[in-house]
Amino acid sequence: MASQSFSDLGLSEEILKAMEDMGWSEPTPVQVAAIPVGLKGTDLIAQAQTGTGKTGTFGSIILSRVPAGGNVPGAIVLTPTRELAIQVAEELSTDRLAKYTGHRCIAIYGGTSYEKQISELEKGTDIVAGTPGRVLDLIDRGYLNLAGIKVIVMDESDRMLDMGFIEDVEEIFKCCPKERQMMMFSATMPEDIRMLSNDYMVKPKEINVSRDVVVLDNIEQFYIAVGRRNKSWALSRILDLDKPKALIFCQTIKMVDMLEERLKEYGYKAEAIHGDMPQKKRERVIGDFREGKVDLLIATDVAARGLDIDDVDYVINYDMPEELETYIHRVGRTGRAGRKGTAASFVTAQEEYLIKEFEVRTGMVIAKRDVPDNEEGAKDTIRKVVDYDQLSNAFGMCRFEISLGKADGVGKVKLADYIMKAGRIIDAAIGKIELGEESSVVEVHKDFGNKMLKDVPKMTFRGKKVSVKVLERE
Ligand code: AMP
User: What's the pLDDT at 49?
Assistant: First the structure.
């Protein structure tokens, strides 16, 4: 496909100039496909994820179709989260896309006081970016008037519906004039979005740019096979070696808190964000990360939704997500605005199938890497421990090498007896034994791993010192 330039898309000089100031040299695929359609006032449904340039898409359409300096807003962008509302408002601010058109855009979201938002509304705005609950609230209180709306945008529509905003959203639509343009952006296209579009849109044009194109292009992706107990060790290696500005994802709020505590304990500058934190604190933490006061931000998916920070070097999936969409969404937080990014996923033995699945479904390559080596002579900040879960097979058996063999006059039975006695290990916990000349390999259940590794060598065999080491999984 011949690359298109922004000036082919029908945008005004003011918008083109703002884009140039922002360092955008050419439009992304979704911008190429959607901007000319949107400029005509046509309704549209675009399948596009964060990182594809969707905000620039609907933003430039709004700035083109809604006059600046009106009394009541001419466009409303609905978002599932406050962070996203704030980011949309920032992207459409007079520092960014509206630099030369002078449109005013404000963010409206819950979990914070009304006064500031009300006073901003009273001063007048051209565009509102907001979460459905608070938007509706301010309409009900009489501060927000949608009678002048010409353009409605639903951003991250799938998440909006997932979060149960459908009724609020429909209520808001009813407060807008019948004659208006509606655009829906969504990473996925579930049935309920199609139904919503049938009810509220007029012959919408569907735009489906092949996913991943922009998001993952300049991102190096790899994974490290590491057990749960050694993830913090692997993380410390990466952090010590690359000293990145990194966004670290965990699966649960509890895990986020635990990791924050652990990293701080070892002297890393890390902060956590998740949905259980007061809004004020979340904003402060995100601000500190944006400004570089903290290097490491640990987050849940919900808290990191829509997080738009251009200079994140690394995204680390401390816990591997099970959904491809989530993976793409997380990884797309790096490699933004033309920069290079790295995405590292920590994958336990039980999760490796996910990597294969994601590779097959997208055609991308996620290479396997070892935990990086330390710099010459450097000590680990967080030490490696033995992780029996990671080392054991599907039956929970780990393999150990013990320094006894035929040369010591033992057979399989004698060796098993010795291990049971020396380590106080039960019969049933001992599996296959491969007898060697000088040493042998013995399977022991992971629950007895520590006894095998620590207790067995405390005894001597006919006066001979015995050593045991745990082997990697076969
Ligand atoms: P979004 O998909 O709206 O979250 O945008 C992702 C990032 O790409 C944001 O940092 C935008 O500022 C940036 N961006 C959007 N369009 C372009 C473009 N045409 N060229 C370069 N960067 C862009």
Answer: 76
